[in-house]
């Protein structure tokens, strides 16, 4: 991922009106490349090519890295897997303390979207929540 690739993709997306939020994935890039990517995305935001900037699968240390460099814009969202087997409570608390929204990846199948819309109609008591908390096996690779 180079600055020119990012810029070209954003220009194409903006012409198609697809660039509301751009998420920078954790690609195993070194710190220098990650920061270059962020600077390029910031420039695209300043040019009006995208509305907001976020990250994908960033742990706390990667987010701190961005915030420590005092860029003009901070991530508005961190898209990552969060579920009973990977609660990531430290990351959740950190993102909330930095006013960074956590979002989980979207469902891609129509059936999954319909099922997700009908998950209400039940309540969890304290014992249920404690049982769910014990499922966390921290399946994260950072």
TrEMBL record:
Source organism phylogeny: Eukaryota, Fungi, Dikarya, Basidiomycota, Ustilaginomycotina
MF GO annotations: oxidoreductase activity
Name under which the protein is recorded: Aldo keto reductase
Gene3D superfamilies named in the record: NADP-dependent oxidoreductase domain
Boundaries of every NADP-dependent oxidoreductase domain copy: 35-101
InterPro entries: AKR, Aldo/ket_reductase_CS, NAD(P)_OxRdtase_dom_sf, NADP_OxRdtase_dom
Coiled-coil boundaries: none
Pfam families: Aldo_ket_red
């Amino acid at each position: 991922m180079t600055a020119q690739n990012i810029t070209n993709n954003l220009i194409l997306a903006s012409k198609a009106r697809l660039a509301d939020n751009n998420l920078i994935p954790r690609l195993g890039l070194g710190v220098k490349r990650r920061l270059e990517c962020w600077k390029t995305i910031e420039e695209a935001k300043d040019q009006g090519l995208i509305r907001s900037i976020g990250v994908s699968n960033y742990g706390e240390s990667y987010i701190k890295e961005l915030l420590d460099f005092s860029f003009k814009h901070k991530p508005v969202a961190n898209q990552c897997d969060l579920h009973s087997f990977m609660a990531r409570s430290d990351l959740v608390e950190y993102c909330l303390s930095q006013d960074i929204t956590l979002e989980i990846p979207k469902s891609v199948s129509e059936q999954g979207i319909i099922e997700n819309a009908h998950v209400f109609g039940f309540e969890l008591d304290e014992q249920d929540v404690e049982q769910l908390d014990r499922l966390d096996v921290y399946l994260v690779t950072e």
